[in-house]
Amino acid sequence: MAHTNKSVVSEFVLLGLSNSWELQLFLFAIFSVVYVTSVLGNIMIIVIISSDSHLNSPMYFLLSNLSFIDICQSNFATPKMLVDFFAEHKTISFEGCMAQIFLLHSFVGSEMMLLVAMAYDRFIAICKPLHYSTIMNRRLCIIFVSISWAVGILHSVSHLAFTVDLPFCGPNEVDSFFCDLPLVIELACIDTYEMEIMTLTNSGLISLSCFLALIISYTIILVIVRRRSSSGSSKALSTLTAHITVVILFFGPCIYFYIWPFSRLSVDKFLSVFYTVFTPILNPVIYTLRNKEVKAAMSKLKSRYPKPCQVSAVIRNALFLETK
Predict the structure, then answer these.
(1) How far, in whole angstroms, is CA 305 from its chain's centroid?
(2) Do 202 and 161 contact (CB within 8 A), yes or no?
(3) Is the pLDDT of residue 162 over 80?
(4) pLDDT class for 57, splitting at 50, 70, 90?
(5) I need a labelling partner for 31 at 20 to 30 A (CA). Which of 130, 181, 232, 313 fits?
(6) How confident is the model at residue 307 (pLDDT cuts 50, 70, 90)?
(7) Residue 255 has what pLDDT?
(8) Can you give the pLDDT at residue 5?
(9) Under a CB-based contact definition with an 8 Å cutoff, are residues 203 and 258 in contact?
(10) Following DSSP, what letter does each residue of 103-145 receive, concatenated?
(11) Angstrom distance (rounded) from CA 281 to CA 199
(12) How far apart are CA 114 and CA 66, in angstroms?
């Protein structure tokens, strides 16, 4: 690799969230529950949507892809963080560190673009309901998903192309539980001011443009919804509330980091935990599992499989018949 001639750092030391053993045990218990719930919840969403023909609509197609991104985001750093709670020396290889940077920015960039696609879907459904099925066809949905992944990967590659060639010749302690790009750049043995500005510009542009597109689209939708007084508008308003909540919770930490990207404050680690550990659980909790159609599909899926007590009853009856 290109960095081998310039860098003598073969691994980075992750300082983690705390040095207190009691606090680490507490955090391990909390984050384990959140991690398992997030992964299982998003897997459940994909299974439910793919198994029910009534959920074969563009909105649920996009939601299932959002769940897939959230599963990926749950696994890029959280499992290692949970293991590191019990490790005295928390280290990560140079290649592993670069991989974390690449994966984080790929997943976050893809999710930003997918949220924009979902806002467009709601805009067409509410503002042009008669043309919804014509405009939001499966081909357009696949294009949206492909673009979201392409933008996320290109956004990540643009960061990694410069970071991997930086000379790391001394300090190797990252004051976080994963390789956060600004923290890793600060460890380089050269003046990284221009690199920091470029990183800020790159990340800021994609996040700000997506955030503004979401705000504008949801503002237009809310204005149109307020003019109506039907039950359908009430349902649309409920859906929009969930969407807007996720947008605020997702973009809030991102905007904070891009306003003060290279100044370290005590709240930074908390926000890092939020957008890496807690963000993937927003889709199951806020978006999907509160949805009546998803609940109905879940009940239908449960009815296909016998309950454990029913299985045991069948086995007992079979054994009884054999003995007779």
Answers:
(1) 31
(2) no
(3) yes
(4) confident
(5) 181
(6) low
(7) 72
(8) 44
(9) yes
(10) HHHHHHHHHHHHHHHHHHHHHHHHH-GGGHHHHS-HHHHHHHH
(11) 27
(12) 7
d(CA 177, CA 268): 12
Dihedral over Cα of 74, 103, 58, 278: its sign: positive
Token couple for 52: 């029910």
The span from the CA of 76 to the CA of 102, in Å, is 10
Residue 146: how many CB atoms within 10 A of its CB? 10
What pTM, to 2 d.p., does this model score? 0.84
Sketch the domain layout of the chain as residue ranges.
2-290
Residue 289 burial class via C-beta count within 10 angstroms: exposed 0-12, middle 13-18, buried 19 and up? middle
| Ordered strands of the 91-93 beta sheet | 91-93, 11-14, 173-174
Q: What is the pLDDT of residue 40?
A: 93
DSSP code, position 176: S
- What is the predicted pLDDT for the residue at 265? 57
And the tokens for 145? 């998903």
pLDDT at 1: 41
Parallel, antiparallel or unpaired: strands 11-14 and 91-93 = antiparallel
Contacts with 288 (C-beta within 8 Å, 6 or more apart), sequence order:
45, 63, 67, 294
Q: Which residue is associated with the tokens 């691994």?
A: 11
User: What single-letter DSSP state applies at residue 197?
Assistant: H
Query: What is the CA angle 211-179-118, rounded to 5?
Result: 25
Calculate the alpha carbon distances from 295 to 35, 65, 193, 284 in Å. 22, 19, 51, 12
The reply to whether CATH 1.10.287.3510 applies to domain 2-290 is no
Residue 196 and residue 185: Cα distance in Å, rounded?
8
State the pLDDT at residue 320.
47
In the predicted structure, residue 269 carries a pLDDT above the cut 80? no
Mean pLDDT (the chain) is 82
Distance CA 129, CA 217 (A): 16
Which tokens sit at 12? 């980075």
